[in-house]
Design a protein that fits this description.
Lyase, Ornithine Decarboxylase, Chain A, domain 1; 30% helix; elongated
Length: 362
Amino acid sequence: MRINELSTPALTVDLDVLEKNLDRMARYCREHGVGLRPHTKTHKTPEVAEMQLKRGAVGLTVAKVGEAEVMAGAGPEEILVAFPIYGSEKLRRLAALAKARRILISLDSETDAREVSGAATALGVTLGVLVEFDAGLHRCGVEPGKACVELARKVEALPGLSFRGLMTFPGNIWGTKEERSQESQRVGEAVRKAIAAFEQEHMPLEIVSAGSTPSAFLEIPGITEIRPGTYVYNDLNTYYQGVCKLEDCAVRVVATVISAAVPGRAMIDAGSKTLSSDLLGSGPKAGHGLVVEAPGATIIKLSEEHGHLDVTRSERELRVGDVVTVIPNHVCTCVNMHDEMFLVRGQEVTGSWRIAARGKIR
């Protein structure tokens, strides 16, 4: 089947581009002596996780227990749940996973640590813990420094827990190359401060985990592993930050023009339930995706099922029945809208993957 014969809207991935993206990040981590523990939030697919592990990933990262349960099928020796998990039902499931493989969890409170400890001891397992510190995003994490040490000591004193190190999410490293470079210096200072507090107390740190796709190639001293996610597919946000080229965007949404009746407008069958409603957070910060075949056409609005295109500046006339492909603003949320992804090499559809971890929010 050719790509333009798919029933639309359809999510597709160019396997050649995906493999190139995976190889690039794996090679960078090997050459720089940094562990790669990729976040699976972008692809949500065990098949891609297996490809990452075969390229030397030290483990996988997830945000929710449901994602960890799915990704266990990819065969990782260790999974990091980079999210403070709270609630007896979720923690029982998490502890059950630890019977078959190493489980790491990040947290930033003694309250959470005690809950995790109770779940682990109830099932007779040990969960590794990374204390999360705030490197400037102001989302989660204690202050870098003394507060990290104090929480780590409390973790060490609780049964069923093993303190393994530190974690932070430098999501504040964002924007142009210059903006990201400047912010990485501030993040680096937070990392230095956190590590120094443990050195002063002679407490070893096995792991110092950080990283995202926008910060992946910015070397921050002290980091032992990185957790990029978007790099597998890339999107318009990574493109406009200069982290990738347009040809490195592996995912496209195939859509059909279903109306051109309104002058200056065209409608495609891909709306917010297909592309997601996430706005562009970099570059022009406008529009809802790039129409590859008609870059002058702007997706100005999304209804649930309609993509509204302004075609007044389009170099190509779009007619009913035309098939186009759209690079999404934010590929992670776009992928999570779909049950399956079609695999493409060239213009040929070679198979499909079920997006097994979509909707796993608990």
